[in-house]
Amino acid sequence: MGNGMGPGWMLQRDCYVLREKALWSFSHTVGLILHLLLCLHCLSKTAFSTPVQTAWFSPKHRHPVLSIDYPPEDKANPVTQVMWKKLGDKPSRILEQLKSHQSPKYYGRYNNRTHYYFQNNTLILDNILEEDKGIYEVSVVYKNNTIWTKKLHLQFIMPPPDPSIKVEINDSHVILVLRCEVESGMKLSYHWLKSGQLILQDERHSLVERNLTLQVNNVTSADCVNYTCVAANGQVQSEGHIQLKVPPPDPRIKVEINDSHVILVLRCEVESGMKLSYHWLKSGQLILQDERHSLVERNLTLQVNNVTSADCVNYTCVAANGQVQSEGHIQLKGSAIELCSPSPAPDLNLKVILSITVAAICVFGVCILILCITHHQEIWQWLRGRSCIKQPATGRSGRKLNVTECPVYEEIWEEQILPAAQEAGQLLCVYTDFMPNCLGAGSIQGPVPMPIEDFGYSTIQSVEPRSRRQTKGMFQLELPSIGEMGAPDVLTLGK
């Protein structure tokens, strides 16, 4: 062999090739097995995810409840651990619960405001905040180390205000109308409940105005139940309730008083099988328990101790059935009770009538006497005016005049004396009736003046007539003309 290679070298080379092939085959098999084990390990750590669930919450309730049901239970592969976390820009762990532990472990700001229940996988947050909105993730770890995850999106929605229900009923009490009123600008949907059951349109129940108004026809006592108006805004809703009750019959009051007229008992009687509440009013004021007023038998009976005439007033028994009530009244004043009955008027006999008449006459006489004393001057002047007499007289021009004659002498009162500073006016006429006859007996040439004695009564100055002639039964006295004063020139006086 010229190349120096014999059969030994060829055998050694073949053995090397066989070892290399065998090693490659072994390593490839081991690699496949290791790769398979790695895949199985990674597969065991893979989480089975489900679509995101949305939870609507109203901040009005302040305590959102987040609950995610467990997958179907496998007894051979039970749940061993549950974890909750809040996702977002800064993910944060909320809690971790091991099945072998009684209570979970809370983290961070959720430590004192979170409650978790492992049995139904429910999380409750207290005093919800604005940052609590968002996506929550729950991870369930099984015994074979498989992980099941689910996400829940918590969103806030504002509920409508609580509705108020307005009740109307016609005069004949046949048609009942309930109107739901909500102060909100939101677009809401409405429905009604009657004793907790949904009301549907039928012959007796009508729903109008987008279900805002409920009308009940042919109303009976069976319709006096609880009604609920439900106003919904998407996933949240508010409710308004009203309880309609049958009013009780009007109570009757029975009065009793003991023989000594010291204790008064008023008993309220109502013919009704309903459970009612009672209270009493005295002259419109609520009666409370005190030393003189006792309320017994669920306020059905009122007892008044040490009765006086001041207790003879109006009493009212009020029977209430929830918000509706009836009243019964009794007025003790003027009733058959001796203490409250009016006293009879005394009999007026002849003696009493005469006494009253004499007393009235005496009083009238005293009043007349006092009037005369206080107004004597006015009375005297009035009497003097009544004594004047009107007589006919003839003036210088021949016109007939009516002259009023009054007594010449009259008493002068002190009140009538004028001050010295005043001057008396001159008389225009002089009466001569009181003067003696001026004609001398047997005088032919005419009357002769005779001296006239003045006793000091007259203050009239001497008047010199122009001419004087005697006529039968008359004297004519001519005086200076006073026509400018509206009086006659000649005044004829009786003799």
End-to-end distance: 227 Å
Fourth CATH level, the homologous superfamily of the largest domain: Immunoglobulins
What's the multimeric state?
single chain
The number of helical runs is 3
Structural class: alpha+beta
Number of strands: 31
**How many domains, as an integer?**
4
CATH class descriptor of the largest domain = Mainly Beta
- Helix percentage: 10-25%
SSE layout:
Layout: H1 7-44, E1 47-49, E2 53-57, E3 65-67, E4 79-86, E5 92-98, E6 105-106, E7 114-117, E8 122-125, E9 134-142, E10 147-156, E11 164-169, E12 176-181, E13 189-194, E14 197-198, E15 205-208, E16 213-216, E17 226-233, E18 236-243, E19 252-257, E20 264-269, E21 277-282, E22 285-286, E23 293-296, E24 301-304, E25 314-321, E26 324-331, H2 350-374, H3 376-387, E27 389-394, E28 400-405, E29 468-471, E30 474-478, E31 490-494
Descriptive notes:
Pfam families: Ig_3. It is found in: Cytoplasm; Endomembrane system. One of its GO terms (cellular component) is cytoplasm. It contains three helices and 31 strands. The radius of gyration is 65 Å and the shape is elongated. The strands form eight sheets. Strands 1, 2, 4, 5, 6, 9 and 10 form a seven-stranded mixed β-sheet that branches. Strands 11-12-16-15 form a four-stranded antiparallel β-sheet, with no helix packed on it. The protein has four domains: 47-156, Sandwich (Immunoglobulin-like); 164-243, Immunoglobulin-like (Sandwich); 252-331, Sandwich (Immunoglobulin-like), CATH 2.60.40.10; 388-416 and 423-495, no CATH class. It is 15% helix and 34% strand. It has 495 residues and is of the alpha+beta class. Strand 29 (468-471) and strand 30 form a beta hairpin. Residues 1-17, 42-47, 438-444 and 466-495 have low confidence and may be disordered.
